[in-house]
Amino acid sequence: MTENEEECLLDKVDLRRRWVSKTVEELQTVIYRLTTDVSNQDVRFQAVPYSLAYNGNFKVLAPSQFLVTVPVRGLGGYREARERRWRYYSLHGARLPCPLRDPEGLQQWLAVRQFTKSLWQWHEADVTIEGDIVPGKVLQVFRELVENAIETCHLSGKVSVLTNSTAVRVAVETSEGPVELELAPAVEIPNAWSRRARWPRCLTRWPSPERVECIKSFGFALLARSSYHWQLSFLQAEQVLLQELDEDGGCRRRCLQAARQMKEDAWCPGSRPVISSHHLQTVLFWTCEKYPHPKDWQVFSRGFLRLVRKLHKCVSQRLLKHFFVPTSNLLQHANAAELDALARKLAAFLKDPQVGRP
């Protein structure tokens, strides 16, 4: 990659950053209004605050695709469950002859009794079955609240609820065009670390032990995104890990931004790419763990190609382990044909690294 190509790519990165900032600012106003009304309807859901700085509730997956976490209220004193029991119920509470599939990777069950403090509303049948807080039922309640809020806030011409998934997704018209947001109710569990997150790994040098303790202090969250299982989320911990990437003067963040720009421009453009910004971020974390020394990240072109090679390997093998929970493959449900097409583009780029190459 030439110096001019590097400069051109980083100019595009800056333009994208400003575009995303403007879009997030506009979306924050809409989501704050909607979730404030949702919270007024049902005390179990909190409003997503408006922030003039970074808003940790917004995660950019692609330029027109966002994940927004909506904190829930009234569940405190979380304890991880140790006992094993089968679940025999449908979302409507009907008894099933065979047990539901046990969760794996980033998924888990959640029972009301796992919290030492809970609002009485979390014991109601609209969100629980046999003592479990069922994400599918939580999403049913939340979807109805969002639909009501759209009407109450007179946002029908700007916001619409999409009906093609269990998750609560909304389409929002912005000044820059339509975007899609997934609104995920989140049980936040601060100052605790999930037993499934076997991190840090033995003999690793990145990040430092002090940084590890700081990151783990932010805890984790459980997101309602599917019918039966809650999804482990480490969005806050990952953001803290990102914030101090280059305190040694390295170019890790620039490499991530450049890879993201190439992904969106050439490797897998479109509104629903086969890999998201979160996938790229995870690839960077693994690369930083493998190359922990400051000298490995002093030259942008070398660091960038190192990152692309790791991405190519993960896509070719259809295997990208979650950084904190490596038993979970983030590409497990990705479209195989799209992954193969991406692998071919990455291979071609690595043979001839040109920014303008499709």
Automatic annotation (TrEMBL):
Per the record, the domain of life is Eukaryota
Query: Mab-21-like nucleotidyltransferase domain location, by residue?
Result: 54-243
Location of the Mab-21-like HhH/H2TH-like domain? 251-347
Instruction: Write one Pfam family the protein is assigned to.
Output: Mab-21
Q: Which family does it belong to?
A: Belongs to the mab-21 family.
Q: Which PANTHER family match?
A: CELL FATE DETERMINING PROTEIN MAB21-RELATED, PROTEIN MAB-21-LIKE 3
Q: What is this protein called?
A: Mab-21 like 3
